[in-house]
Amino acid sequence: xxxxxxxxxxxxxxxxxxxxxxxxxxxxxxxxxxxxxxxxxxxxxxxxxxxxxxxxxxxxxxxxxxxxxxxxxxxxxxxxxxxxxxxxxxxxxxxxxxxxxxxxxxxxxxxxxxxxxxxxxxxxxxxxxxxxxxxxxxxxxxxxxxxxxxxxxxxxxxxxxxxxxxxxxxxxxxxxxxxxxxxxxxxxxxxxxxxxxxxxxxxxxxxxxxxxxxxxxxxxxxxxxxxxxxxxxxxxxxxxxxxxxxxxxxxxxxxxxxxxxxxxxxxxxxxxxxxxxxxxxxxxxxxxxxxxxxxxxxxxxxxxxxxxxxxxx
Length: 313
What we know:
By secondary structure, this protein is mainly α. The chain has one domain. It contains 12 helices and no strands. α7 runs antiparallel to α8. The longest helix is centred in the C-terminal third of the chain and has 40 residues. The termini are far apart.
């Protein structure tokens, strides 16, 4: 009996040692995964502030907290386990889901680029429409819902990429990495979003007369620079969306992936130039793919558009 118990304890100890050795790789895997989803994270950070614009400043942090909480729930409770289940029962499906998500990112990126350069909405007079009157509470609820829907799609991409990074690792590693990535990215994104949203208030506070002249100068600089910073952040987010979306698709298609590898190899003597060339090429490819998808979506909408109702005069 004692011998059997000792043998069992030896087995448990060996299992613990193996698990501990395996978990030593978790920080490296988390860092690697975070690097791969950086483009989506940048876009998520750039998109979210617009959902609190025009709302009560006193409610800004509360709104961001609501979005962040639902984002974490989606990643940790729904998307993470879904990625694990798909990886176990249908691993062949994951690359195609990633490519669908990449195509969506290209489409969204193209729509943003198109809206930046299109002046049609300003040149053509729009017919007057009746505006629906809603309460501030209803507007807040609507904004939060819209932000959560957008975040869900981006979070799905993040968790799918995170799983693909650790697909060959032990199950314990997969679970720990997915949950760590979910928590870390949610805190990082929405912590930075909160800082961006409240930067104006921080600047105004620093610009008060009771502070040192240097502090006041910094405060005024923050207030003046924030509009330009948000604009630049929007451009960076759009570029990241196109680049990441196209890279996801290219990675799943060998006839596109191999030429990119050849390009990087040809410019390997200048790593920065190799990275820049790859990013620019992917971003341009993302715009082209997004334009094609936009045309398809527009055609589908026209086909299924309801006939306009006749209005009595």
